[in-house]
Amino acid sequence: MKIDILLIDPPGRTTHVPNTGLAYICANLKKQGLRAKVIDLNMKREPGERCLEYIDKSGIIGISVKANVFHQALDMANQIKSHGFQGSIVFGGPHITVVGEKILKENPLVDYGLRGEGEYALMDFYNSLDVPDKSNIPGLIWRREGQIISNPCNFIKNLDELPFPDYTDFDSWDIIERGFRENIADIIYPIVTSRGCPYKCIYCSVNKIMGQVFRPRTPENCIEELMTARDRYGVEQFQVLDDTFTQNIDRVKIFCMGLINRKLNFKWMCPNGIRADRFDFESANLMKKSGCRRIAFGVESTDREVLEKVNKKISFEKTEESIKITKSVGIEPHAFFIVGLPGANFEKDLKSLIWSKEMDVGASFWMLVPYEGTPLWDMKDGRMLMDYALGAHFGPDTKVVYETDDYPAEDRRAFFYIANFLSPLGRWITLCSFHGGRSELIFYLLKNSFARSINLGIDVLGAVLNEFFIQRLRKTLIAILDFAGLKEPVKVIFKKMGLR
Q1: How does DSSP classify residue 244?
Q2: Do the beta carbons of residue 66 and residue 12 sit within 8 Å?
Q3: What spatial distance separates the first Cα and last Cα of the chain, rounded to whole Å?
Q4: Among 266, 280, 299, 435, which Cα is nearest to 366's?
Q5: What 3-state class would DSSP assign to 335?
Q6: For 219-263, what is each residue's pLDDT tens digit?
Q7: Phi then psi for 167, rounded to 5 degrees?
Q8: 437 with 428: CB under 8 angstroms?
Q9: Shortest CA distance to 444 belongs to which of 417, 471, 465, 462?
Q10: Which residues contact 322 (CB under 8 A, 6 or more apart)?
Q11: What angle is formed at CA 407 by the lines to CA 380 and CA 379, rounded to 5 degrees?
Q12: CB neighbours of 127 closer than 8 A, spacing ≥ 6?
């Protein structure tokens, strides 16, 4: 079967969320009568060479590129070219939007770049393949007489006009559909209800990728998508992936009331983090009543001087208040922190860990990565230790890519592993990213925590015992007692003792 446009999502770090951007592009291409196919190497990883089966069936191959998959995308493009592909390879996605001109200058095998939103731009590119002058295609980066030309981006003003994301053309559709329907491997239906961010946090490039103007979909359009997803895929849960979901608090309240009045009974969450200053008790209460179970907040640091330097424009007191509101209505709060922000050191970051434990809020600590295109990239006063695209701020490939005299690499690494290990919701980050066996991890955690303080060392020792020894003893006892018919009463006793 002929494919008009072949799209590829390289393997990244988040393997439980399908690429919503590519799903939007597929839906719009289908609306225009074109056939697209997505080779989803992120959700369906083996074998990676399967994309080569389709290179003779399409004249355009588009590769979605984030910073942490850039080198994989280059390898993929080289492999496709080496197998005789004569068509056009187009790089798109966040990384291209920020540094696309540089990438085309340094990599001749990338024929074109596409900055910004691709729903209409990729369609325009397809229709202009044989036209030498491509200056009218929004966001296109192309070559003319040896020069790199970068066309201005046009952001979509009315997001309601877009067809809903379509994942049925993904070659991972069997995995995605089952996940949506049965919540397999935490594959929860993603919805993006708005685009754009008006804020200028120094570590973030979202306002360059999606624009500085907040562009919301109407609550009615969002609810219609969810109802369609329920009818088509059996969706009962969803996650809001907006960068600034609560920017317009009244819109959030109307959205929640729509879910409540229609008695849709969805369970949902906000895992990307909302701004604590765009939140109040009424919105929290309506979110709870409409089925919201978890809200993440980008706290970043509890140190006021550090918060001033990152230009987040939220007081720590407001963040604390919003988390208390969240807990008061029965929604589980989650706090995101960044290890190694400007002005931070081990001791200041440790205060954030202590605060999260005192507040009894689940926390995740992510490693600072100065991304090109952010203000932090231009103002960094330390040393880059490697190409930032080879690192990641969380997950199995987390690396320290940057250090300062006040916060050297080994201190950053030690805090990252210790802090996440001490947080029940962040422990998976330590367990999946530490390179070494169980005994090496235990030794590393105890050595580095006791070197800092007795209290920190005791906390880590308790967590080590719970994770590696008591848990295994518990499982053994449960198995024995289950055989004896005493499993449930003992589970209740364990729970009261604080053993999971």
Answers
A1: S
A2: yes
A3: 52
A4: 299
A5: strand
A6: 999 999 999 999 999 999 999 999 999 999 999 999 999 999 999
A7: -100, 0
A8: no
A9: 417
A10: 276, 277, 279, 297
A11: 10
A12: none
pTM of the model: 0.90
How sure is the predictor about 105, in pLDDT bands with cuts at 50, 70 and 90?
very high
Residue 71 in contact with residue 78, Cβ under 8 Å?
no
Strand 267-274 versus strand 292-300 pairing type? parallel
Bridge partners of residue 8, in order along the sequence: 39, 63
- d(C-alpha 445, C-alpha 419), whole Å: 10
Q: At which residue do the structure tokens 């969706």 appear?
A: 235
Find tokens 């198995």 and name the residue: 479
Q: Which residue has 């329920």 as its token pair?
A: 230
| Token pair of 221 as six digits | 């359009």
Residue 170 DSSP symbol: B
Which of 76, 87, 25 is CA-nearest to residue 52? 76
3-state secondary structure of 260: helix
**In this structure, what token pair is assigned to residue 243?**
């960068």
Predicted confidence (pLDDT) per residue in 348-361, tens digit = 999 999 999 999 99
